[in-house]
Amino acid sequence: MTNYILETVNLTKEVKHVTLVDDINLKVPEGEVYALLGANGAGKSTILKMLVGIFKPTRGKILFEENPWRRENLEKIGSLIEFAPLYGNLTALENLQVRCDLLNLPYEDIDEVLKIVDLSDTNKKKYKYFSVGMKQRLGIALALINHPKLLILDEPTIGLDPIGIQEMRDLILSFKEQGITIIISSHILSEVQEIADTIGIVREGRLVYQEKFERSKDLTELFMENVKEWSVK
């Protein structure tokens, strides 16, 4: 029997009578990488923002560890959605100290988290001088500082060069090895092909596909088939 760390039941978001997300039923298996895919404007970010409490659902339910979602669940959830709340004039260490202060966490895990994301040697270098890849990794460090059971990453490879993309892939797989469940949204299907255990595809606010992913399949072909099938229904 599959254990789901997170599920949604008919999750819907409407803004000014426009439906952005319609009756979404996600099932995210514990300990896996769940890839949420879709074209720009399909509703992926809206879904992820509801999962972390940025947006309030118009209707439907979110279940975390089989119980109705509560704000206290954020103690077990880490996220990087759009831009991380980082300060340009602070170092990586100082940014994490600010995060710990906000969450009432001790500083003792900061060195470990910086090591995980390969930012231990940034010393006094300020965030505003970081490369795109370093900024993304520091954003993930913020999401990891509370030792989450679920990590939600919205387009973590955006703006990265090929080396940065590969490093991000390896980083995500290392989180899975530590027992962290990951929900990732990405447009780079070739990378998702390498890391995803379950695929969800969103089209025009609807979840049109959700299945375990077999590595032997061509993810690009699977994606295009489902988008095209939905478009003619």
Structure description:
With 233 residues, this protein is an alpha/beta fold. The chain has a domain at 4-84 and 150-228: 3-Layer(aba) Sandwich (Rossmann fold). 33% of the residues lie in helices and 27% in strands. It contains seven helices and eleven strands. The strands form two sheets. A six-stranded mixed beta sheet has the order 7-8-9-4-10-11, with helices on both faces. Strands 1, 2, 3, 5 and 6 form a five-stranded antiparallel beta sheet that branches. Strand 1 and strand 2 form a beta hairpin. The longest helix is centred in the last third of the chain and has 16 residues, at 162-177. It is globular, with a radius of gyration of 18 Å. The model has no long low-confidence stretch (mean pLDDT 92). Residues 6-229 form the ABC transporter domain. Belongs to the ABC transporter superfamily. GO terms for molecular function: ATP binding; ATP hydrolysis activity. It comes from Pseudolactococcus laudensis. Keywords: ATP-binding, Nucleotide-binding, Transport.
Q: Which characteristics define this entry?
A:
233 residues; 5-stranded antiparallel β-sheet; 7 helices; 27% strand; nucleotide-binding; ATP hydrolysis activity; ATP binding
